[in-house]
Every structure is written in structure tokens, then in C-alpha cells.
Amino acid sequence: ERTNHPRSVPSASDSAEVLPATLFANADTPEQWQRAREQGACGVGLMRSESLFLRAHDWLDEEAQCQAFRTMAKASVGHSLVIRLLDIGGDKAWPTLSLPEEDNPALGMRGVRLLLARPDLLEPHLRALYRAASHGPVSILIPMITSVEELLALREICEAVRLDLQAPPVPIGAMIEVPAAALLADSLAKHADFLSIGTNDLTQYALAMDRQHPRFAMDADARHPAVLRLIDRIAQAAQAHDCPLSVCGALAGQPGGAQLLCGLGIRSLSMVAAELPPVRAALRADSVDTLVERAKRALAADTLAAVRSLTEETG
Ligand code: PEP
Ligand code: MG
């Protein structure tokens, strides 16, 4: 069972304007978070921890990780900070770790699968996070979840690390970015403290189209009606279980996409700093009723072209 640990997420009413969604930052560094904060972000909705290692071109030990997480945690006091566990493998190549060569890395050892297979990587990573959490409002987000078993296994390891450090509990959330997780959202919602939809991978895996494919990436559009129906299902499951839900994939940072997500009842969106002003303008432009109505039409659409023209009416 999830711990129901309350998240210190400021509500939309904390800011002067009332938007149908609270806007957060996708930020990997204090500078990116600062820029997003200047644009009105209420917290960090996604810090991709792999970015630390990619920037260092090396593996970082517990101390170095802790230092980086602590800096972000301190800069986030009074806000919120969702740090995603190391998400490598697949398109996120990793030259310095000797990972197995695979014919199909997108379907292989990546995300949470890799973390569960490599305690030598996971344990210092979690220790660094729990240590940093005493300096600010850290939440932990698990990437590429495909089953409840993975979530429970990861939670158990988190709890062991936490007890060992005698650290306070932190909210533990699951990324929903694999179709299996979308279909299991109601089960995952029972065991996660929060859910976060990664529309980039959800689209790639639902449409079986490589998100970086030179020819197909353009068609790997999260507005595809099949993806929207998965997102709608996740939103309903989260609501039914009273589980906080946000979206941190690219769709959240597109004006028309953010409108669709709000129309589906999603109240928390995370994006990079530059996307905040256009998204805010789009969310101000129409009433919630209009957004709900448009989202209903998009859900009923037969084609991606139809959804695209609906979303391009305004954004
Ligand atoms: C996603 O898949 O939508 C996501 C936010 O994660 P990343 O882009 O890092 O895979
Ligand atoms: Mg992803």
C-alpha cells in the first residue's frame, strides 16, 4: 500500500492567477530551475538524474550524487522537487558503464529493469537521494515501470535504504510511459504515492515508432487518438484512487497539448522554462468547459489528423 505521504505541492491558488493546471519545471540543474521559477514554475516536476552522469561523462559516487541532489533540494525549499531515478539504456546510451550489447535496447535492459538488476548502481543512488532529502522537498520517481511487481520491489529497496539511514520517508511515484503501465494505472495508483505520465516513451511504445527515427519521429505524435485514450484511462484511474497525477512528457509543454491534458482533467504539467509562457497563455485563452469539450472531441476522433486540427484551432 502506498504511504499516502502528503506532497508539498503548492496549489494553483498560491499564485496570483488561477490556471486550470499547476505548472512545474523539467529542470536538471539549479540554473534551469531558476529560469523556470522566473517564468512562474511552482516546483521541479522532473529532474532527469541521468543528466548528472551524462554531463560528468562518468559514473558519480554516492557523495558526488548527494552533493548534486542536495544543491537542487536546497534550491527547491518551499516548492517541490521530483527526482527521477537513473533512466539509462534504450535511446539513453551509456558509454562508461559496461552494459550488455543488445539487439533491441529499447526493449531490453533499461530504466527500472536495469536498476533492479544492478544493486551496485541503485544502492549508492538511493542513499544519495535519501541523504539529500533532509535538505529539501524531494520525491522519487521510478522510470519505465511495466508492472506492480517492479514498483513494489523498488519500494522495498527504498525502504531498506531509508531505514538504514534513519531518513524520513519521501513520496515514491511511478512513471507511466509504457502501454502496460497505462493499462495497469489503477493498480499502480494503489501502490504509488503519485504518477507521472511520460508522453514521449508512451507514444513511442504505443505506436511502435522510435521517437528518434529519422522518418517516423514526426508521426510519433502524442496526440494520436490511441495515445490520448491511454492518457484518458490513466487520468481516470488516478482520480478514482485519489492519486496525484502529472504529465512530464513533451505534450505538456505544447500549448495545444497542455490544453488537451487539462481537458482530460490533468491538473499538473511539467515542462522546460521556455515552454511555460506559451502554455500559460494557452491555458488562459479558453474556459475549462471549452477545454473539456475539445478533449472529448479529440478522444472520439478517428485519426491523428483530426486531433491535430482540433488542437491547432488555438495552439
Ligand atoms: C517521457 O518519456 O515522456 C519522459 C518524460 O522521459 P524521457 O523523455 O526522459 O524519456
Ligand atoms: Mg521516458
Automatic annotation (TrEMBL):
Region of interest (Disordered), ranges: 1-14
Cell compartments where the protein resides: Cytoplasm
Annotated family: Belongs to the PEP-utilizing enzyme family.
The protein's name in its UniProt record: phosphoenolpyruvate--protein phosphotransferase
Native source organism of the sequence: Paludibacterium purpuratum
Full-length numbering of the shown residues: 496 to 810 of 810
